[in-house]
Amino acid sequence: MDLQQSGLPNTAFIHPQGKNQADVAQLVQQVVDLLLGEMGTAAERSPLPQLTRLPSHNIPNEGIPEAELLAQLKSIIQQSMNAAHPGYIGHMDSIPSTASILGDLVAGAMNNNMLSVEMSPVLSRLEPLLLKEIAAMFGLPETAGGVLVSGGSLGNLQAIAVARNIHFPIREKGLAGLPKPPVFFTSAAAHTSFQKAAMVLGLGSEATIGVTTDDRGKLDCGALQVAIAQAKQAGQAPFAVVATAGTTVTGTIDPIEEMAAIAQKHNLWFHVDASYGGALAFSPQHQHLLQGIEQADSITFNPQKWLYVAKTCAMTLFRDAKGWQRNFRVGAPYMGNEDDAMNLGEVSLQGTRHGDVLKLWMTLQHLGKAGCAAMIEQNFAIAQVFLTSIQQRPYLKLATKPDMNIICFRSEPELLPTEQWDQWNSKLQDHLLQQADCFVSLPLYQGQRWLKVVLVNPFTAVTHLATLFEVLDECHANLSEFTPA
After folding, report:
1. Main-chain dihedrals φ then ψ at residue 414, nearest 5 degrees
2. Paired sense of beta strands 269-274 and 145-149, if any
3. Which region, left, alpha or beta, applies to residue 246 given φ > 0 means left and ψ of -120 to 50 means alpha?
């Protein structure tokens, strides 16, 4: 096929016999040069650039020149969330590792389909083996296994779906015949994906029972015992308990070990949402914070957060891989079968799926366990600097004592009425972005607005934090100039 005679640009596809290799190489090099130029100057742009104009959304009759395409691409990069900036510290969005960027590029070029082994013969075999190794790092037994999914919400959905199917005889006939409505228990601070999971699974969002937390934001185990007893008395059928290892707002880790014991006592499935905090398994110095996770029946973990793998990359791990597959698998007659490997699309919520395992594998091979541990330890160190700086300022208040490198705090100046504190902290968020080149988020916690930092960027230095606190001090010193809008 002659691409140019067909009306397509010569670089529309990579010719399998290399006939347009020089032209494609030139286009690829221009994109790589653009990317390196923009990422290599990320610190010179705002962590959260202003949106000035969107790219053209009109589909042209004829393809546009490559120079124009590259110009629009550059504009998109320059107006996008700039997680590479050392001052981008507001969310769990890490700068991606170089290896994961390259892994995504290669996976995209291969375009293998994780639906079946025959459509991804290497990656479909690599994924279960790598996830089994990661499951062992959490202390799960040899029987464990897992599957990659596109985000923590799908990971939690997969886990709750399997727990429901194992606990109730509904795999084929559904919920209609059950004498009691199923319910499960999470922390009141757990991720909203559990409510969505209950809704999608036909349980109703109210089937997710949020248990009160203590003064550190951790699930109250006494309250959990009461909630389980009350659910049974109300004619409900409890089937699972969920612990969170790293809540979204405060980064709190629930009392995993104690919750595991309660779940076992009541014969309930025990799931740990370690989407963020699961990375602690790679840190010999801090993995004790996950004590008890080895007793989990299932775990959600997102390397796209604290292991620096480009989005998306998340997983659901199961203590009993055969039990998961037996209670969830739906065979697909249009796919071939291999004796030594399973079709992952048959045991996952997703069918067609990107080869995310490649960028995960490349990152872990490139950094190694020691490299991952070093990054986590560096983050803990700079978080301690941030925490000390807060404690030195009486006008700043911590939401909770942090468990990890997520710190939630706010300004509560005595010169302002308490009803203006939320507005004041909102104003501080804007000041920090404009004057300190730092983006911090403004979550709602216990009905109030707080400032939150996630110290995950390896290039965030003590000097960046010093600038942030200088701006906070200046704002507090000039508080008398503040007038509500």
Report:
1. -65, -25
2. unpaired
3. left
Closest of 313, 311, 310 to residue 278, by C-alpha: 313
> How open is the CA angle 99-104-107, to the nearest 5 degrees?
120
Q: DSSP characters for 431-460?
A: HHHHHS--B-B--EETTEE-EEEE---TT-
Give the integer Cα–Cα distance in Å for 423 and 165.
47
Residue 315 dihedral angles phi and psi, to the nearest 5°:
-150, 155
CA terminus-to-terminus distance, the chain = 65
pLDDT of residue 390: 98
How many residues make up the chain in this entry?
Answer: 485
Q: How far is CA 281 from the centre of its chain?
A: 16
Res 255: pLDDT: 98
- Backbone angle region of 221, left / alpha / beta, with phi > 0 → left and psi within -120 to 50 → alpha: alpha
Q: What is the pLDDT of residue 333?
A: 80
| DSSP single-letter state for residue 190 | S
Contact between 159 and 272 (Cβ < 8 Å): no
Nearest residue to 453 (alpha-carbon basis) of 218, 217, 244, 250: 250
The structure tokens listed for 233 are: 């008395």
The tokens describing 74, both together, are 């550059």
Cβ neighbours around 222 below 10 Å, total: 13
Residue segments in the chain with a per-residue pLDDT below the cut of 70: 1-5, 482-485
Residue 4 has a pLDDT of 60
Lay out the sheet containing 396-398: strands in order across: 396-398, 406-411, 451-454
- In the prediction, which pLDDT does 1 show? 59
Q: Distance between CA 26 and CA 14 in Å, rounded?
A: 12
pLDDT score for 480? 74
* Partner residues linked to 149 by β-bridges: 314
Segment holding 54, helix H or strand E: none
Give rounded-to-5 percent helix, strand, coil for the chain: 45, 15, 45
pLDDT for the residue numbered 173: 83
In sequence order, which residues have a C-beta less than 8 Å from that of residue 255 and are 6 or more positions away?
218, 219, 221, 243, 292
